[in-house]
Amino acid sequence: MTAEPSLTFAYEPNATPVAANERAARLVAPQFGRVFTDHMAMIRYSDDKGWHDARITARAPLSMDPASSVLHYAQEIFEGMKAYRLADGGTALFRPEANARRFQASARRMAMAELPEHLFLESIERLVEIDRDWIPTSDEGALYLRPFMIASEVFLGVKPSAEYLYMVLASSVGAYFKGGAPTVSIWVSQDYTRAAPGGTGEAKCGGNYATSLVAQAEAIRNGCDQVVFLDAVERRYVEELGGMNVFFVFDDGSMATPPLRGTILPGITRDSILTIARAQGITVREEPYAIDQWRADAASGRLVEAFACGTAAVVTPIGSVAEPQGRFEIGGGGPGQLTLRMRDALVAIQRGTAPDTNGWLHRLD
Fold this sequence. Notes:
alpha+beta, 19 strands, about 375 residues, 2 domains, D-amino Acid Aminotransferase, Chain A, domain 2, ten-stranded mixed β-sheet, about 30% strand, D-amino Acid Aminotransferase, Chain A, domain 1, nine-stranded mixed β-sheet
């Protein structure tokens, strides 16, 4: 067995960090993804050196050669996760090992070098420890972490890159949806699909999100907050939103979510909801669910709630669904009781106010 590389992270403090009073002002109501901390993490890879040059350094622009392969062949992957301020004053990450494993799976699918789990975790731990004062104290506040990796070899030719740059950015965030909307409205995409069997649907790569943007723009034009995609083969079965998984709640108290068949991102929040629900004795099925059935169940009252979930949006109730042929409401259009129960249970674990029976919190104290 090949020994995993051991690296020492150099620390290069930001020479001009944001002043404490200015940082406090930025943390009052941070717009999602707009407020960044003083530092970032970096590790380089090359086929001849392996993983090397690990450092925590001042956040700054990158200098790239215009022939860098990521700009031409789109070898790029990323993750999304959060660091939380706990009720006892400590700091913790939520299931970072799961993010590390998914990052490796994405790298395999995109023919990229796999970052060892311990380096992924250490890069995030070090960055959060240094910039923990950027975690907002508000109820929705957290430090959103964006590990990502790009192909950095300078060449023009279709082959996997021989060099990669891995980085982690940290961003102070509040609620994902503007105004903390109690429910969101969903547009059903008719003309576009997110992923097809054999494609990159289960990898967290930028291309998946790029292809969703035209459909998301269509959703906005039709007065909706988010888009939901149907399967690429039959254009019938619900798969996922532009950046979130989806759950359905029925009048018998059971829940369902589309199964993972290679075209849906295996969300860590999705998996957490499945675990929490089953621990509470709720029947949860992972099964295909057709858009016609969604419409019929909403009309009959069999479907009483629906919600989207993901790291950024946590658990967000879906109030209505729109299509070219019309719009239908779910359970009266308001947040459902089981949806809010799932959200409260998840957030309580993340914030350290409920027992962490699954060992999901990764404390940094």
